[in-house]
Amino acid sequence: MTFKSLGLSSPLLKAIQDSGYAEPTPVQKKAIPMILNGSDMVVSARTGTGKTAGFTLPILELLYMRKSSRKNGIKALILCPTRELADQIHKSIKLYGKYLNIRATVVFGGVSMNSQKASMKKGVDVLVATPGRLLDLISQKIVNFKILEFFVLDEADRMLDMGFIKDIETITSLLPVKRQNLLFSATFSPVVKKLTNRIAKKSIEVDMSSRAMKVREISEKFYRVNNSKKTEILCHFIKEEDWYQALIFVRTKYGADNLVRRIQRSGLEAVALHGNKSQSQRRKAIEDFRRNKVHLLVATDIAARGIDVEGLSHVVNYNLPAVPEDYVHRVGRTGRAGNKGIAISLVSAEEKKLLADIEKFVGFKATFCELPLSHPEAPIFETVGQKSKEKNEPKSSLRKRPAKRKSRRRNAKEAGG
Predict the structure, then answer these.
(1) At 119, which CATH number?
(2) Which residues contact 282 (CB under 8 A, 6 or more apart)?
């Protein structure tokens, strides 16, 4: 099946060809024809399967074909949880729509609102936004949804986890009742299903997440490691196996900065990406990583959402995530668009419960690999009650998750919504 057979017009086909894509992914094959047919859709698919093009291409096609409707105003709203993901979607729209006379802009927090206001006043067909900044613009009467035709909620699971449910409800209450709803999510929990049923009551559901199956493009490896030896083992992997590029996930902002310092002391270069960084710092870190100016990026889950690096070979779970769904999102940063990838998890004794939660969620049992270190003090799995020897590391709080309300407020602020 080709993109042409999906019903896309010549300008879009030319832009797709310029982008180097030869054929649609399975998600795109399913979603694009149904969206073009006017159906509401709820699509569950892992990251890296082409979800963004799965909704941007048909929306651009429909806007292009409806040339008679040239009224000024927002015709498509794409709502997503983080600045990085919003920026990525906006770039995709510009990439695929470069031969179309369709105006798009992106708005998110963490930057001045003045330029965003000016862009909105010039007229926008497609608006990509995070909830917080969008509500700010709505309160100032900068945004008008009277002629809106399409509403996209991307990464619905992450939106709920970050506490955006009330913002989503407020925004959807302002949209026209008659619209096409498209909801995309990497995971499809009962809470996500409840939300999607409220927004798109007669939608077509497409579940391609296959969370109970290992993705064949990704080799997932688990190692039993003492907390005090994690940095040593990570640097050993990078040096001995000559990794070209790696995205390393940690649980906290403090942990990200601390790990970067320790990696640098070992003679390697790395940068941190988290919510305490300014938007310009975050953008520079991601762009440097994409352009291979930086080969090691240490990030928290929220800041890393929306990172799409072509050919990223390695993802490392330096700390296991407290939320099992985040494991799917992390691993999905590699093995994208059919490329091969390796996902490595360094599991300490303190993280046994977190690993059990992940195994239950993804539906398979982790198989541990032998550590490659040759010295006799190779790390062993810590016994219960053993304390971490690593200095300057905050005490573990894995046993107790923070109260959801407090955590979600902090998450939303960090994401810049």
Answers:
(1) 3.40.50.300
(2) 83, 84, 110, 273, 303
Rounded Cα–Cα distance for residues 317 and 24 (Å): 30
* Burial 351-364, CB ≥16 within 10 A → b, else e: bbebbebbeebbee
Query: What pLDDT is attached to residue 405?
Result: 46
**Considering only CA atoms, which of 60, 27, 30 is closest in space to residue 46?**
27
Q: How much is the mean pLDDT over the chain? A: 82
Per mean pLDDT, which range of 4-13, 88-97, 331-340 is the poorest? 331-340
Instruction: Indicate if 129 and 92 belong to the same structural domain.
Output: yes
Closest CA to 44 of 30, 57, 58, 61: 30
How far is 75 from 151, CA to CA, in rounded Å?
Answer: 9
Task: Give the residue from 191, 64, 174, 192 showing the smallest Cα distance to 129.
Answer: 174
**C-alpha 60 chain-centroid distance:** 22
pTM greater than the 0.90 cutoff: no
Please indicate, yes or no, whether residues 120 and 256 belong to a single structural domain of this protein: no
Q: Is 17 helix (H, G, I), strand (E, B) or coil?
A: helix
CA distance 311 to 333: 10
The amino acid sitting at 58 is: P
From 208, 232, 249, give the residue that closes a domain. 208
Q: How many helices (H) and strands (E) does the chain have?
A: 16, 13
The answer to whether 93 touches 104, Cβ cutoff 8 Å, is yes
Decide which of 208, 240, 274 is a domain's last residue: 208
Residue 90 lies in a domain: yes
